[in-house]
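About this split. The held-out portion is used to measure sequence recovery: a designer receives only the structure tokens and must propose an amino acid at every position. Recovery is the fraction of positions where the proposal matches the reference. Here is one held-out target exactly as it appears in the evaluation file.
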């Protein structure tokens, strides 16, 4: 039995290796360096139980015998195949076993350019670790570790030894601690996504060193402190998402230097105070998302000059005064959200000219007067127009036509209470704003509702 088994095995091995040896005279023996092959198998064993990788894929870089999720490149100078890309976690790529842990040997693969590990570390808490004897030059350009609920601990500062990195994606893990400043020495970086972790501390001022950075997403973390003014030096930036942190202070004036910025999200922070005058520099901005901040200032006129704006979200932030009529110049605006503020006065008549708008929420403010929209406008927006919670607003009877935007008809006695001039309730309003200013913004929604009650 044993003899026959070992004989068969030997025969099998001979058969496998035979074509390689037989071709050496004419063609190069296109296999891998033993060290690289062994490292690769160790990584596969640490991550995946899909196969017995050594037996199923004895030569994983050989065209025709490689598994999905691996890419290799033949290097004529050394006559060998080298792994350039590894992709784990999503079919058809190899899936990970429950006890998979981070394979630090992965950084020893000498030609690896891209790593993708998605939904892989889910049970055994594991950390991103780099081996102590890192190669001096790493060609790794993309490190993407995403949706790994058991990937914990800090982002190691040694990540800065991966000098060729262009893309770092570490979103939806359980990473903690501060963003290591060392990351910002990686001057080839084009994209950083650290969203959906529980990173703490401040955004390092060293961020300004990244001249090539196009996308920065730090949303859904626990970052505190101000937005550093060095942000203005990241000139190539097109997408900046800092939403859902605890950032405080003013938006720095230098933000206006980001002439390439298309997407800016600052929602759900503790930002407050006046908008910087530099805002008008954002001439390519299409999305400005800044709900849920304790701003307590008038709406800035400057937005009216950002002609490319398509979406403007400024809800739930204590804005007061009137809606600037300059916003009517935003001809490409498709969505505007100003609900849950303390805006007063009339809806600018020019809003009726916003021909691309399909969503408009002005609910829960102190707007008054006749709604300036005709029946075709009301019909076009339908349920995407919300004007409710503005007791002073009414619709011209000729425009109503069965629409429900949360507003009564002008002059209708049943809704006459809606027409009461708001000025009467000036005193309680003041009282409320006093309270609002001195209480934490977390309670903003509830306070706003409460204010409504106290003068209604
Ligand atoms: C992060 O912030 C969230 C929401 O503010 C909070 O529930 C959580 O405890 C914070 N976590 C850490 C690690 O600070
Ligand atoms: C508005 O959008 C259209 C179509 O997307 C685009 O061609 C045009 O340049 C935009 N206008 C402005 C002022 O950005
Ligand atoms: C709306 O557009 C029309 C036609 O372009 C223009 O005549 C009118 O002045 C505009 N209304 C406002 C309030 O901007
Ligand atoms: C409604 O207003 C728009 C914009 O001012 C105008 O183009 C359109 O002709 C009006 N429609 C009706 C039915 O009055
Ligand atoms: C408008 O905002 C209010 C308050 O946040 C919300 O309840 C409502 O669903 C929104 N309406 C639309 C059409 O977006």
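Reference sequence for scoring:
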């Amino acid at each position: 039995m044993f003899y026959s088994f070992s004989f068969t095995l030997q025969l099998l091995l001979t058969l496998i290796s035979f074509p390689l040896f037989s071709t050496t005279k004419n063609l190069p023996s296109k296999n891998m360096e033993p060290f690289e092959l062994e490292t690769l198998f160790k990584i596969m064993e640490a991550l995946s139980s899909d196969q017995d990788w050594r037996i199923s894929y004895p030569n994983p870089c050989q065209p025709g015998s490689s598994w999905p999720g691996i890419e290799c490149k033949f290097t004529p100078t050394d006559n060998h195949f080298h792994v350039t890309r590894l992709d784990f976690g999503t079919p058809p790529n190899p899936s990970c076993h429950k006890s998979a842990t981070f394979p630090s040997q992965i950084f020893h693969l000498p030609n690896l350019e891209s790593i993708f590990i998605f939904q892989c570390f889910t049970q055994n808490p594991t950390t991103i670790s780099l081996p102590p004897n890192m190669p001096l030059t790493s060609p790794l350009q993309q490190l993407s570790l995403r949706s790994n609920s058991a990937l914990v601990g800090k982002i190691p500062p040694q990540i800065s030894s991966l000098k060729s990195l262009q893309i770092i994606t570490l979103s939806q893990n359980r990473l903690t601690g501060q963003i290591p400043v060392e990351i910002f020495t990686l001057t080839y970086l084009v994209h950083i996504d650290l969203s959906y972790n529980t990173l703490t501390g401040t955004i390092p001022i060293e961020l300004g060193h990244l001249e090539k950075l196009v996308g920065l997403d730090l949303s859904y973390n626990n970052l505190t402190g101000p937005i550093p003014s060095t942000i203005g030096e990241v000139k190539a930036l097109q997408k900046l998402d800092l939403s859902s942190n605890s950032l405080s202070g003013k938006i720095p004036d230098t933000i206006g230097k980001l002439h390439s910025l298309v997407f800016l999200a600052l929602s759900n922070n503790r930002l407050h105070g006046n908008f910087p005058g530099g805002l008008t520099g954002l001439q390519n901005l299409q999305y400005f998302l800044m709900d849920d901040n304790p701003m307590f200032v008038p709406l800035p006129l400057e937005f009216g000059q950002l002609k490319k704006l398509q979406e403007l979200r400024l809800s739930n932030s204590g804005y007061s005064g009137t809606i600037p009529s300059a916003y009517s110049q935003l001809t490409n605006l498709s969505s505007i959200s100003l609900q849950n503020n303390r805006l007063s006065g009339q809806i600018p008549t020019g809003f009726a000219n916003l021909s691309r708008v399909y969503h408009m929420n002005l609910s829960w403010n102190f707007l008054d007067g006749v709604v300036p929209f005709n029946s075709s406008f009301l019909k076009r927006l339908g349920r995407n127009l919300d004007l409710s919670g503005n007791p002073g607003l009414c619709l011209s009877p000729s425009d109503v036509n069965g629409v429900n935007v949360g507003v009564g008809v002008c002059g209708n006695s049943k809704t006459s209470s809606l027409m009461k001039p708001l000025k009467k309730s000036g005193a309680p309003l003041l009282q409320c704003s006093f309270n609002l200013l001195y209480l934490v913004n977390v309670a903003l929604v509830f306070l706003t509702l409460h204010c409504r009650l106290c003068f209604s």
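Annotator remark: Residues 69 and 87 are 4 Å apart (CA to CA).
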